[in-house]
Amino acid sequence: MSAEEPQKAFSVLRTFFWPIHRYELKKLIPMLFIFFLLNFDYNVLRCMKDTLVITAEKSGAEIIPFIKVWVMFPTSVLLTYIFIRLSNRFSRETVFYSMMSLFLGYFFIFAFILYPAKDYLHPHASADSLQSLLPEGLKGFVAMYRYWTFTTFYVMSELWGNIILFLLLWGFANQITKMEEAKRFYGIFGVGINFSGVVAGLISIFIAQHPFLFSIPSEKDAWGQSVTTLISLVLIAGLLAIAAFRWLNKIVAEDTTLQCKADQAFQKEKKKFSMRENFRFLATSKYVLCIAIIVITYNVVINLVEILWKQEVSELLQQNPRAYNIYMNEVSTVIGVLATFTSLFISGNVIRKFGWTFTALITPAILLVTSIGFFGFFFLKGHPDIVLGLCGFSPLAIVVFFGSLQNCLSRAAKYTVFDVTKEMTFVPLSSESKTKAKAAIDGVCNRLGKSSGSVIYQALLISCSTITACVPYVALCLFGMIGIWILAVKNLGKQLQDITSSEPTPEATKKSAQPIVLESEATPVTA
User: Which has more pLDDT, 472 or 396?
Assistant: First the structure.
């Protein structure tokens, strides 16, 4: 069956689980494989980066806000700038290979050069001197300097999600996917993405629990061998993803029925753009600005609550790196199971049945409800008798449990309904507008949100000295941001419904200067 032949309606069961035409498999299957591999790497790196910086001696969760502001945000701007420059001069396939080589090259250097030599590279003496001169609230800043190799690993691991997953992979998917396909494909992509979290968590736990699996001359302790082994798996998965991406590009290039018409035109006449133009486009388009607000507020909220939760986990596990990494991977596995179930049975069907706006509101609603429970029990830590009487566990254990529950539910929602609904908002844009919006939002706004949350923590740490003392103010900021997030979702939902509820006129499609240009393949969706 080809794209030109009449398409038979799917059965009820197939519509629910596998609404894919046979001719679409050669586009869907490779994309699903790439999504799985690159998200496998992300999940492995996400747990490792936290373990390295939080459980290091004389460090803690207070190091994270300083890393995100002083190192991660400028690095994200730099890499986004590099992405834009490469995109202006080379094909998207070349850009993908270049950025993947940059990241995989760094992880190779860290695993086999920087980490084995960490005891010689970390400036403990000067860091101790600096700590004696600075106030207690800047302990995280000193730890960031003390463990600079861990800091760079944290930054590159975190930016893997923004640069590789969202700018490169999702950007590519949005370019070659029509709106009608997106409503069927993206839920299935979510299954591959979230199942990768389950696999990554189980493999990481197995490796961390079995010391000395094989001889690594440069590492004498079990945790060091786990680090080297896990990064080696990251490198292998990355190389497999590059091979699959090359094969997919060859297939799509040869079969024009698998491409969007707007994407074919964009490849023939590629326009150059600068970072300044991206942000001008962001500021002048109310539609894209709403997407940016949603991304920023989500990252502020999740950053505010996760730093506090990770500090409590580290305290409960007494800063043991192996125990901390195992626990975080157990949480990651649960997130993967929940997210896979959601992708299979909920997310795609909720979008089709209840519309975009209802689905996009699920994530802020989950964070609102779970934050009430998390902060409520945190404030009860000063009354251990009440907590013991209610639950029979120590206040610290209960806080960690509710924080873990919140992380599992909110992350599962993020990886399914949040990411899918966010990516769907890019589909109605023209190819040029997609690239501009993706670079501005996923390259910079994503990091701006996390950095904003970290700035809040830094200001509070300087005045309050400890994370625990900052909690009341953190809670106030968090609930305020959730309110802004909900308003932005409702506004964006109305605009998306207006854009996709009618076909564009010939005159409208010629106005390429407009910030939003519908592709000819776009079909109505219910928002």
Answer: 472
CB environment 26-62: b (16+ within 10 A), e (fewer)? ebbebbbbbbbbbbbbbbbbbbbbbbbbbbbeebbbb
Residue range 19-261+271-502 in CATH 1.20.1250.20: yes
In whole angstroms, give the CA distance from residue 235 to residue 251.
25
What does the pLDDT look like over 419-449, one tens digit per residue? 889 988 988 887 777 777 877 787 678 878 8
Tell me the residue type at 456: I
Residue range 132-152, pLDDT digits in tens: 999 888 999 999 999 999 999
Any idea what DSSP says for residue 9? P
User: How many residues are given for the chain?
Assistant: 527
Token reading at 275: 């970072």
- Torsional sign, CA 8, 250, 38, 304: negative
The DSSP line for 389-405 is HHHSS-HHHHHHHHHHH
Which parts of 160-272 fold into alpha helices (H)?
Answer: 171-176, 179-209, 222-254, 261-268
Nearest to 445 by CA among 293, 274, 278, 283: 293
